[in-house]
Amino acid sequence: MKAAVIDSLERGPRFAGFAEPVVTGGETLVEVTAAGLHPIVRMLASGEHYGSQGVLPMIPGLDEVTAAAIVNPGVGAWLALTRRAALQPGETVLVLGATGVSGRIAVALAARMGAGRVIAAGRNGAILDRLGATATVALGGPDDRAALAEAAGPDGIHVIIDYLWGPPAEAAIAAITRRGMTHTAPRVRLVEVGMMAGPVISLPADVLRSSGLEVLGSGPGTIPLAEIFAAIPGFLALAAAGDLPIDIDEVPLAEVAPAWHRSGGGRRIVFRP
Asked: Counting Cβ atoms within 10 Å, is residue 206 exposed (0-12), middle (13-18) or buried (19+)?
């Protein structure tokens, strides 16, 4: 069969022949009609992601079109909001990286789940204006901390879904920091999902003592794979309503090599045979 085959962690995939799969006990052979190219797929294929085993050769997790595009970012956002943050109706949600594919879905899901305020923060102003969030913050301005604090309003932020980490996460943490001895800090759950802005942050110790901040991760390891897989049918039923934002570029699988390194630009690439 033909597939996107990776035989070098540095080079990425090529369109080439690969052995037909052999079905063993407890397995079912399925026909793949469309497969999404997600950031985690690139990271696993390059060995950068902690879940990569680096065994070569391999076919990257490339799985009809909208389903292929939306499952990875959508289920990730859904589990971050429900399983990790345990978002409650009326709470304020900040999405860092709201202009990316996953972030846009997280904004829509938070609103659907009854969040009182949804703050969308990202660098693409044109996309921010289309998200329908309660408030937006264009990151990269003169003072991201002040802008995020102003967007939060007097009641503050309860949940942060973070696809960026790095300086934007530092600004968000600074925005929730409280000063003084008499305040009662609200509980703030920061759920780290991605690190598009950098792999590390500086976290002042007094923030943890004064702000009510809880830092959580969301991904394989923090959520068992069985639970992730079990969430897919329910999420797809939710997505079938058709109001979750997803922009898709269909690409023939034979063009996997040039498409692999192409920036999605807020769109998700889906390969077709």
From this structure: exposed
Residue 110: which of 134, 136, 138, 130 has the closest Cα?
134
* 42 — pLDDT class (breaks 50, 70, 90): low
Q: Tell me how far apart the alpha carbons of residues 52 and 48 are, in angstroms, rounded to a whole number.
A: 7
* C-alpha dihedral (240, 69, 219, 22), degrees to nearest 10: 110
Report residue 50 CA to chain centroid gap.
Answer: 16
Q: What percent of the chain has pLDDT over 90?
A: 43
**8 Å CB contact between 98 and 122:** yes
pTM for this entry: 0.75
Helix axes 166-176, 144-152, angle to 10 degrees: 50
Q: Token pair of 223, please?
A: 């959520």
